[in-house]
Amino acid sequence: SATLYVVATPIGNLADLTERARQVLSAVNLIACEDTRHTQRLLQHLGLRKPMLSVHDHNERDRIQQVMDHLDQGRDIALVSDAGTPLISDPGYPLVQALRQAGHKVVPIPGASAMITALSAAGLPTDRFTFEGFLPHKSSGRKERLRAIVQDTCTLVFYEAKHRILNTLEDMSDVLGDQREAVVARELTKTFESFYRGTLMEIHAQLSSHDDHQKGEFVVMVTGNPAPAPASEIDTERLFKLLLAELP
Ligand code: SAM
């Protein structure tokens, strides 16, 4: 049977499309994409005309059978998202999982991802990091998620949209501590690429200083907890509670 290629596309600068991605996109019979209009622009840039099939979060499960049928009929397919690597805060996981389970061939074509691009130039520790993707949209849910990782000692990486960036930085200051060091990367690989560094409080102030700093796409990277509560302290507290419960 045929192959599903999972193809990374640029996150802004079209020159970042790899040679192999170009070859695969021009060779496949069909392109499964998130948004056909968006992918149409990329294909136009490459001088390609290809049939497209939209696969997004809301129809992904219905599309799986269709994709399998195409593969069984010997048609190679490329899966792309609007930007960067598919499945990374983007559609594709149910499809790839189902194809793997059914024994189909799935081949990755690597390229840009905003998370790795941001980490590679931020100047924060990269030996261990936690990718959290998008936090919940509502402040209560966001804080709850942040509380769950407040002790984490590795670098924390988040994606955020422009209309939530300031609120998210505020919640991060509240929960992770306003003196936590962080780096925010904005508009990576694009004309207005910028890096903001400092404590969460300082970065919030920098971004608040002018509307222009709140435009575009953001990756927020926060240093891990420099002094997590030692396990022994937590255990003592737990033990104390257990003993207390036993007392008459
Ligand atoms: N699949 C993509 C990847 O591999 O990075 C991510 C898709 S996700 C729907 C979009 C989010 O990624 C944006 O809201 C932003 O947080 C981040 N992002 C994508 N492109 C970016 C860029 N050029 N600069 C900064 N962040 C970017």
Automatic annotation (TrEMBL):
Compartments it resides in: Cytoplasm
Chemical reaction(s) catalysed: cytidine(1402) in 16S rRNA + S-adenosyl-L-methionine = 2'-O-methylcytidine(1402) in 16S rRNA + S-adenosyl-L-homocysteine + H(+)
Superkingdom classification of source: Bacteria
Gene3D superfamilies, per the entry: Cobalt-precorrin-4 Transmethylase, Domain 1, Methyltransferase, Cobalt-precorrin-4 Transmethylase, Domain 2
Example GO biological process: methylation
Pfam family name, one: TP_methylase
Sample GO molecular function, one term: methyltransferase activity
Claim: Transferase is one of the keywords in the record: yes
Domain Tetrapyrrole methylase: from-to ranges: 3-203
Keyword Methyltransferase among record annotations: yes
Keywords from the UniProt entry: Cytoplasm, Methyltransferase, rRNA processing, S-adenosyl-L-methionine, Transferase
EC number: 2.1.1.198
PROSITE patterns: RSMI
PANTHER family with a match to the protein in the record: RIBOSOMAL RNA SMALL SUBUNIT METHYLTRANSFERASE I
Membership in a protein family: Belongs to the methyltransferase superfamily. RsmI family.
Name of this chain's protein: Ribosomal RNA small subunit methyltransferase I
Gene name for this UniProt entry: rsmI
